[in-house]
Amino acid sequence: MSESVRVDSWLWAARVYKTRSLATAACRAGHVRVNGERVKASQSIHVGDEVRSRISGFDRILKVTGLAVKRGSATVAATIFTDLTPPPPPREAVAAVPVRDRGAGRPTKRDRREMERLRGVRDDY
After folding, report:
1. Sign of the CA dihedral 44, 8, 2, 63?
2. Most exposed residue of 8, 17, 50, 123, measured as fewest CB within 10 angstroms of its CB?
3. Rounded to whole angstroms, how far apart are CA atoms 101 and 115?
4. How many structural domains are present in the chain?
5. How many Cα neighbours within 13 Å face the side chain of 13?
6. Which is nearest to 27 in space by CA: 8, 46, 4?
């Protein structure tokens, strides 16, 4: 086995991204960092590197413990990295956003003021 692997190929083999082209696009967009530096898809990674990948607005932090070029099963993929990602915040810590029914039209001035009061923007009532 080689001592280094392309980062896009490794992200695909580690099952971080569904396809290699998605991994390449994420690298091109600047969503992938290796040891704190933005990388191109062709950048080589080594065992011990820290790979940080932004997926759906959240960073996933992975420590490289093994190298793989081919995509295997999920159990094999789990052996080539250590997940250092902190757990997400509890659901009640995130403020609830009021949701309007789809197709209900634009909110009236009264509805808008109620929504602002719920969000804590208005305090004049």
Report:
1. positive
2. 123
3. 14
4. 1
5. 17
6. 8
- Residue-wise pLDDT for 42-61, tens only, equals 999 999 999 999 988 889 99
- Comparing CA positions, the residue from 4, 11, 8 lying closest to residue 60 is 11
Judge whether 75 lies within some domain. Answer: yes
120 located within any domain: no
> What pLDDT is attached to residue 99?
73
**Does residue 125 lie within any of the structural domains?**
no
CATH code of the domain covering residue 40: 3.10.290.10
Question: What predicted TM-score, i.e. pTM, was given to this entire model?
Answer: 0.69
Would you state the pLDDT for residue 96? 67
Long-range pairs, 118-121, Cβ under 8 A, ≥24: 119/95
Residues with Cβ within 8 Å of residue 21, at least 6 apart in sequence = none
* Owning domain of residue 67: 5-88
